[in-house]
Amino acid sequence: xxxxxxxxxxxxxxxxxxxxxxxxxxxxxxxxxxxxxxxxxxxxxxxxxxxxxxxxxxxxxxxxxxxxxxxxxxxxxxxxxxxxxxxxxxxxxxxxxxxxxxxxxxxxxxxxxxxxxxxxxxxxxxxxxxxxxxxxxxxxxxxxxxxxxxxxxxxxxxxxxxxxxxxxxxxxxxxxxxxxxxxxxxxxxxxxxxxxxxxxxxxxxxxxxxxxxxxxxxxxxxxxxxxxxxxxxxxxxxxxxxxxxxxxxxxxxxxxxxxxxxxxxxxxxxxxxxxxxxxxxxxxxxxxxxxxxxxxxxxxxxxxxxxxxxxxxxxxxxxxxxxxxxxxxxxxxxxxxxxxxxxxxxxxxxxxxxxxxxxxxxxxxxxxxxxxxxxxxxxxxxxxxxxxxxxxxxxxxxxxxxxxxxxxxxxxxxxxxxxxxxxxxxxxxxxxxxxxxxxxxxxxxxxxxxxxxxxxxxxxxxxxxxxxxxxxxxxxxxxxxxxxxxxx
Length: 488
Ligand SMILES: Nc1ncnc2c1ncn2[C@@H]1O[C@H](COP(=O)(O)OP(=O)(O)OP(=O)(O)O)[C@@H](O)[C@H]1O
Ligand SMILES: [Mg+2]
What we know:
Blueprint: H1 10-16, H2 25-38, E1 43-48, E2 57-61, H3 68-75, H4 97-103, E3 108-115, E4 118-125, E5 135-136, H5 139-145, H6 148-152, E6 155-161, H7 174-191, H8 193-196, E7 206-209, E8 212-213, E9 228-229, E10 233-237, E11 241-249, H9 258-265, H10 270-273, E12 275-280, E13 283-289, E14 303-309, H11 314-317, H12 330-352, E15 356-357, E16 367-372, E17 375-380, H13 385-390, H14 398-410, H15 414-422, E18 427-428, H16 435-452, H17 457-465, H18 474-483
Parallel strand pairs: 1-7, 12-14, 17-18
Antiparallel strand pairs: 1-2, 2-6, 3-4, 3-6, 4-5, 7-8, 9-11, 10-11, 11-14, 12-13, 15-16, 16-17
Helix pairs in contact: 2-4, 2-7
Bound molecules: adenosine-5'-triphosphate (ATP) and magnesium ion (MG).
């Protein structure tokens, strides 16, 4: 056998790199922020404004920066072998992130860096990749380009031009862009919450998007008085690898203010956000998954479990290039199943513990949620002004009744109901078992039903047998109308 050189075509490989991983804007920015964290940056500033003509995105940090030689290596695709041991504070693995994350959003990547006062800059432009020749900018070119911060202190600036993917080929509207920025803020506040809160590295990381700082968002509400942090444990793998597991039961929604509740449940609802939250070197990589160990909804919505993994287990977890996916290693499977089992009852207790008014935009809700002996019932709030009007003979009219029915329809507590029904062993039981109430309801319904049946008892009984709640309580109803002598 002989060996011949068979390198990839530069332009093809770089274009293929656009599709490595499954980056969206927050995912791409997170990969760059990982690098800034590794470079011990305290501030990362993202400038990303809407523009129909040649939009530019800039990400500037005040980390240690790179020398010209280091920048050259950093710009190289696959700049580090993934098998190389990384320091514990290194969030990188593949030597691709800066390039693949950037090309997932743009065609032209420029990196300017300053280390010990020395500036250097390099460019990859996918429209012009010629046999691995990389653009290196002159001092003058750098001067015209750089952020004022790099003129006075060390750091790195990433510049994205030709943002075809980010702006969806120019079809993204201003409104869609604004949503994307809000989503990006929310994602980054979660992904880096420990860094933003100053829980790691002994100092806070500040991330700004268009000048506005991002606040940390702790998905466990770990400082909330009503959050239950359950037994934390460490699982060893090999001699030095430790995986930390910390289950939480979140506060019942009745104990949260509305803004917290909205954030807690997110766009996809509480149920979607239950599950494991996997942190790699304190950076969240996966949230709200059960790794198919249990179905979503089988446990209470309030269960979230933090799993902390070191970067030494990357290959066992099969971490993806974009750090958004990983596979649960076999050595953890059984223990996680046991932990899930022990959480079933605990979380059900929290969800059943307290009844409350349903959180809505206002203070007076139409529906109230009552919990008694582990049974949940939804009752209409009779003190609500529109409902109350029904009981006032002077104000009761067809219009009042119609308004009341409308607000009942509009305010059906569908979200709360679905949360309750998803909770493990929680029972929503709307059926009243009080016979007196049913008879009262029967007495009210009978005159019009009798009229509809044209006085025919057979038709009346047939109607009653398919009308709620009489059908479900047929023995009681039958006994009553027999007693009245209406049927024999
Ligand atoms: N903001 C930065 N400040 C200082 N050095 C940086 C910065 N961004 C990138 N680098 C350097 O460039 C190298 C390559 O970064 P890149 O993100 O492409 O790969 P990686 O971080 O090594 O691995 P991964 O593909 O897992 O992200 C980094 O290892 C780091 O040395
Ligand atoms: Mg990286």
